[in-house]
TrEMBL record, chains A, B, C:
<dbReference type="Pfam" id="PF00848">
    <property type="entry name" value="Ring_hydroxyl_A"/>
</dbReference>
<keyword id="KW-0479">Metal-binding</keyword>
<dbReference type="InterPro" id="IPR015879">
    <property type="entry name" value="Ring_hydroxy_dOase_asu_C_dom"/>
</dbReference>
<protein>
    <submittedName>
        <fullName>Rieske 2Fe-2S family protein</fullName>
    </submittedName>
</protein>
<dbReference type="GO" id="GO:0005506">
    <property type="term" value="F:iron ion binding"/>
</dbReference>
<keyword id="KW-0560">Oxidoreductase</keyword>
<dbReference type="GO" id="GO:0016705">
    <property type="term" value="F:oxidoreductase activity, acting on paired donors, with incorporation or reduction of molecular oxygen"/>
</dbReference>
<dbReference type="InterPro" id="IPR017941">
    <property type="entry name" value="Rieske_2Fe-2S"/>
</dbReference>
<dbReference type="GO" id="GO:0051537">
    <property type="term" value="F:2 iron, 2 sulfur cluster binding"/>
</dbReference>
<keyword id="KW-0411">Iron-sulfur</keyword>
<keyword id="KW-0001">2Fe-2S</keyword>
<keyword id="KW-0408">Iron</keyword>
<dbReference type="InterPro" id="IPR036922">
    <property type="entry name" value="Rieske_2Fe-2S_sf"/>
</dbReference>
<dbReference type="GO" id="GO:0004497">
    <property type="term" value="F:monooxygenase activity"/>
</dbReference>
<feature type="domain" description="Rieske">
    <location>
        <begin position="51"/>
        <end position="157"/>
    </location>
</feature>
<dbReference type="InterPro" id="IPR001663">
    <property type="entry name" value="Rng_hydr_dOase-A"/>
</dbReference>
<dbReference type="Pfam" id="PF00355">
    <property type="entry name" value="Rieske"/>
</dbReference>
Length: 422, 422, 422
């Protein structure tokens, strides 16, 4: 709290100064997590510029299906058109701006505004606007399109007119890992929307380390707590788990080689606009799924996979998503900013399209571990938000095992620099 | 969402630029509906300058009656004084600023502050302030008066020191339409306060067109859906209704002529400070009232009216009110801004002072159509507010039948220009 | 509400102008109570600079006890260390800023962050941070200390690096009044936290006069309503009470002299940074306590006091506290700002450490009068907040009996001037 005289005069100045002060290896200064103007700038520099994970193909299985997703102040409408292609539009009528679709809005041949019945096709064209004068040109009032890409069944949109380069190349490297799981034809078994009381970056940072994993007893049944540690840094108490990991890992590699599944780690988290990390990794106990004994939660496996024992394919993308893709099911997480101190976490569980609830899988068992883990994380994020909101907070040092948190912050600061230099 | 560097430096600059960019015939840009500073400027330029409809005489029938109404950040106290004259004051004690009256506060001879018992007369004079030193001059601490005018039983206040010219002239043209209904001696049968989740201008704009009237099935039993259409623009599907309208209208005109009731349309919605529209107009079916079959909702007619079949006298005023005055009852609507995205709609139903509830009218029947219509409008306003709040919203074109929406916006923009040029 | 053009360009300008306009003897202008930037400046100029009453020793009786208190945006952690000394720290982990302790957090040997298990001693030293690299210097990451002083059992903290001068001198004059009541060894009998819907200064101003005491029927059973009146100004209706006061006061003075208890009034409310008022004063009826008949609410007296009939020791400090210390119990009040229009009032009731609930005192009886009084005050503060929030509010004149309100405002304005001149 300083005398108002000392405040720089514009938000851009304040952000520029805070970016310039950023010390690599340390957490970000408080205003990045709490200030309304920093939040607005995050929307401009990150969420309105980058490719943002928002959904999975399986949420819109049929032509005419539509849903909407909020990205900060933007509302984006997703539809599957008559040619089964996914499309995205700004979710706002071209007449007087009414919102077109709220949440999931079922399925129908056209998109009809609820205010004055302006009617759009699934391709966004304005088909009908009642009582217009001669000379009214419908072609001028189609829905504003938003870039959309589906990568192995995962849906990304980009609000920028000119999306950042490099997405196609990243997608082409990620897709081979995903295709054996055939997520684009999967079925949504469950969804959850959890509002966390913290800045979106705290939600992401929390996801990028297992330094806090003692708080996740359910997850740690099968998730190796050594995740993120270099061999040399593994604490003594985690050595037994590490021994189990090494055995499971060796066995898995043999399986991957035998089945021809890509599995090697690619980690490019902070040196490119479309930054990501992908890896097939072992799970503990039965090694199949996030269950108390590690056995599969769904009897029907994804795609045509011949064995349940594939560990998990972990995919992390900047700025807002992660995915766990297993043999029996997959889970998609996307982080959507609501306000400087509030964030929505959307979680979607996918199974084989012919897997039957109650027969092949119990939905409670399927969701239990990650519902618990999400709630635990939300508590930690809220604790962090309250702490960094005070003037006494000072950025502190990341431990080596938090290197992916550092990578996230470094990627993020690079995006702010880009935006400040536009 | 733009880089903060591009933001003009003061709110006045931003408002001035947005006003300059306004395209006639199109809806307003997003910040007019969502921005806190634009909202504050609306209060300064419109609600603190213009004559604002806030109540009806019948809400304060007896000397000593008082009520309060909030106009944005202002609280105005209305009282009927000992000479039965209505007066308005700023609702704030001259001692340490405590609010004097909250909501309806019954009736009493004086106005006593609940904090330290400073006591004011109904004329605003400070009568008593306990424990003051010699030399304390009570005459310096009377309540601050607010301009008040009653027009045919409808109460308007003006917060400006110097009210805008033209109100008296407008009142003198409106009053002859109202006087036969004798609203100043009417009785309040019901009141409702509905908080709508949208900017006050969206509430007004929604009121100024029937392009959306398909959403109002109860209202459309008797309200002709052709309202606002020019003869040439009436859609085919509304032609049968229009034929009924023409017959009802011809019959009504004969009645008005026979009874000597003024009925011609005056429409001066955007070329003057006190802008209004007034017209006697037909209703469908029995043509008497807003009921399922169009028959009167109250058996005792207002004033000394000799017939229930008078259609409705529709009065619209800028910036914040409309009225439906029928033979059997009248309804007053006033729109009061709470925040950029929240608005209070006050609705008051009036009947003859001797009409007995349960005998002459059923209060549920009396209110049903406009309670339903208000709720439907609130849903549409919320839909519009959510849409225009996103950065992707662009002003769109009004249809010819929305000409009164355009007139409202044009009047409003003229008021902002006046304020910016002060 | 003025045109935005007329707004000075920075918050400091606006505050400086408002301070310059302040008229002694009149209430403060509206923005001091309602504006977010003025509120932030209050935090900087007052709550982050001055000694702030936050707790009593008795809330942390044992080594290892800890609690936290929020001072505006600051969270302060209070602990009693192994040497039984009270200490205060900023309640934020030095790693990634998580809040360390929420509310009362029981007792334990160390302070362990709930996020990544960084562990601090009760002296604030970082004892353990898991998985750090060689070269990590724990000595650099101890908890940030906050100045703490206990005065006769009342706990004050100062967030400034350099606390204001004069506190020790004030403490040395206050402590002799308090010591006979031995509050540092007392027991907490009850606590309440009441959120008032008003600015912190309205809560303080309300406490500093009895001009409104007609609103407190329970309190006025024993509290003389003449409090704050000069002899000459006492209204006629209060003369009988004043006669009783004079008799009780004469008797009490004899008791104080006999027992050697300091009792004379010290009133230095606006001419120093650590400003205060202290006085032993009479109570009505039995003269012992705040009960319907004035008899003690707790049979076991504080310290070794030989008689219950000691009236009340009233201690007021700027900016945020007052205390009533009686023979049988004591009550501490501290006012903590939450937002421009919301304030927390913490009230703590203390009794002798060996007094037994249900035997020596009934907790409901003990709290009844001040719970009722606090609620009544909260209603008045809310009334004032609503009134001063409107643009029509103008500062009004204080009556002579409100001289302590004027002293508070004068002290406050002096602090703002100091801060503006830094």
């Amino acid at each position: 709290m300083t005398s108002p005289d000392s405040t720089p005069s514009t938000p851009a100045d304040r952000i520029r100064n805070a970016v310039a002060r950023r010390v690599p290896g340390r957490s970000l200064e408080g205003p990045f997590y709490t200030d309304r103007e920093f939040f607005d700038f995050d929307i401009a520099a990150v969420f309105a510029r980058q490719w943002i994970a928002v959904a999975v193909d399986a949420e819109l299985p049929e032509p005419g299906d539509r849903t909407s997703v909020e990205i900060g102040p933007y509302s984006v409408l997703l539809v599957r058109d008559d040619e089964e292609k996914l499309r995205a539009f700004h979710n706002v009528c071209r007449h007087r701006g009414a919102r077109l679709v709220e949440g999931d809005d079922g399925s129908a041949g056209n998109l009809v505004c609820g205010y004055h019945k302006w009617t759009y096709g699934l391709d966004g064209r304005l088909l009908h606007a009642p009582s217009q004068p001669a000379g009214f040109d419908r072609a001028c009032f189609g829905l504003a399109p938003v870039h959309l890409r589906s990568v192995g069944g995962l849906v990304f949109v980009c609000l920028a007119e000119q999306p950042p380069a490099g997405f196609d190349e990243a997608a082409s490297r990620i897709e081979p890992y995903l295709l054996p799981h055939d997520l684009s034809r999967a079925k949504v078994a469950a969804r959850s929307e959890l509002v966390e009381e913290g800045n979106w970056k705290l939600v992401m940072e929390n996801n990028r380390e297992c330094y806090h994993c003692d708080e996740h007893p359910e997850l740690l049944r099968t998730f190796f707590p050594t995740y993120g540690y270099s061999e040399a840094d593994i604490p003594l108490r985690l050595r037994p788990a590490h021994q189990r990991y090494l055995r499971a890992d060796a066995e898995l590699r043999a399986t991957f080689e035998r089945l021809g599944l890509p599995y090697t780690l690619v980690e490019e988290l902070d040196d490119r606009s479309t930054a990501f990390r992908i890896q097939r990794d072992a799970l503990d106990l039965a090694g199949e799924s996030f269950t108390p004994d590690g056995t599969a939660a769904c009897r029907r496996l994804l795609g045509d996979l011949p064995t349940a024992r594939l560990g998990h394919l972990a995919l992390h993308l900047q700025p807002n998503s992660w995915f766990h893709v297993l043999a029996d099911h997959a889970i998609a997480f996307s982080v959507l900013p609501l306000a400087a101190d509030r964030t929505l976490l959307r979680t979607t569980w996918l199974v084989h399209p012919e897997a039957q609830e109650g027969v092949d899988y119990d939905p409670d068992t399927l969701q239990r571990v990650w519902r618990a883990t999400n709630e635990q994380d939300a508590r930690l994020v809220a604790l962090a938000q309250r702490g960094v909101s005070g003037p006494a907070y000072r950025p502190g040092p990341y431990a080596p095992t938090e290197y992916q948190v550092e990578a996230f912050c470094s990627w993020y600061i690079a995006r702010l620099r880009e935006e400040l230099n536009r």
